[in-house]
Recover the amino acids of this structure.
């Protein structure tokens, strides 16, 4: 898969961003800028690919999280997706209307609903996995397996450093204790 991007390589360290009409020099020591720019580029590429399959990043995220853990509430889903509950409401309502989700009431707490994927949603998720994998492959083009593993470990460390109460932070603390 080749994702069309408006950039050209000038040298090993400089890429010209055709939208900005100026060279984009890597901010080698500006982690925040690079993470933000990488997130935006990845999100845009993924959104473009998902759009051609009548899906969105929000829907993909719901499918991904619920395929790993069904029967959670909207609040729990929002927490796992790192979004606000209110921002998720319209996405979930549309998915229910399209027959991708069911939301039965919690038997112990009638104020809550639990979220479950339908068979149609599971099929949709299965068909989107190769799309997401191809964007990941494009994003890591030119990196060997060890570089990708190290990159993921470093990103995990950044997240853990910034979110001391996250599950990743606990995982990193446990790993540090073992070494």
């Amino acid at each position: 898969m080749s994702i069309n991007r408006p950039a050209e390589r000038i040298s090993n360290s400089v890429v010209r961003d055709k939208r900005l009409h100026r060279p984009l020099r890597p901010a080698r020591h500006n982690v925040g800028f690079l993470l933000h720019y990488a997130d935006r580029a990845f999100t845009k590429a993924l959104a473009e690919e998902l759009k051609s399959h009548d899906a969105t990043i929000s829907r993909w995220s719901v499918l991904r999280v619920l395929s790993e853990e069904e029967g959670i509430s909207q609040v729990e889903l929002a927490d796992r997706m790192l979004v606000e509950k209110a921002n998720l409401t319209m996405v979930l309502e549309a998915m229910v209307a399209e027959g991708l989700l069911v939301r039965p009431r919690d038997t112990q707490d009638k104020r809550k609903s639990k979220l479950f994927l339908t068979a149609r949603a599971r099929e949709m998720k299965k068909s989107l996995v190769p799309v997401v994998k191809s964007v990941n492959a494009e994003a890591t083009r030119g990196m060997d397996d060890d570089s990708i593993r190290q990159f993921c470990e470093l990103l995990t460390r950044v997240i853990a450093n910034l979110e001391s109460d996250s599950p990743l932070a606990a995982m990193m603390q446990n790993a540090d204790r073992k070494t």
Confidence is low (pLDDT under 50) at residues 9-14. The CA atoms of residues 50 and 56 lie 6 Å apart. The chain has seven helices and five strands. The longest strand covers residues 7-9.
